[in-house]
Fold this sequence. Notes:
Blueprint lengths: L1 H4 L3 H20 L4 H18 L8 H20 L10 H10 L3 H8 L4 H12 L4 H8 L3 H19 L1
Helix pairs in contact: 2-3, 3-4, 5-6, 7-9
Amino acid sequence: xxxxxxxxxxxxxxxxxxxxxxxxxxxxxxxxxxxxxxxxxxxxxxxxxxxxxxxxxxxxxxxxxxxxxxxxxxxxxxxxxxxxxxxxxxxxxxxxxxxxxxxxxxxxxxxxxxxxxxxxxxxxxxxxxxxxxxxxxxxxxxxxxxxxxxxxxxxxxxxx
Length: 160
């Protein structure tokens, strides 16, 4: 990010390549399909406009705070409350931890089996749909939902 602040287009390309799918998944969980693509472009434009605000802190948490603020503005402009299909109260806490450090989410996921952690990562953080998970894993959507539910319950028990 520091190199991008200094004008390196290559640095922006590296940031984009590394985070574009995670950002898009995050957005798809929060906006309707008809709104997500335009908002996704807005996020990257906003990063460009606000790059001078970056002060060397861990990039990903800083970037997600930027995105969350944009989402709040978007919800206000659309005149509706936050709608987050597929998430629950625990996942709200998990997303909030993204604002802390990169390690918080990974520390939570480390409490799960590798398979469960990967499933939670793909569904909640990368925005992979049940249909895509079904195709890539060979598991039914019902089985995927059960596994996600068990993983979230397991994380809840660990937090309490």
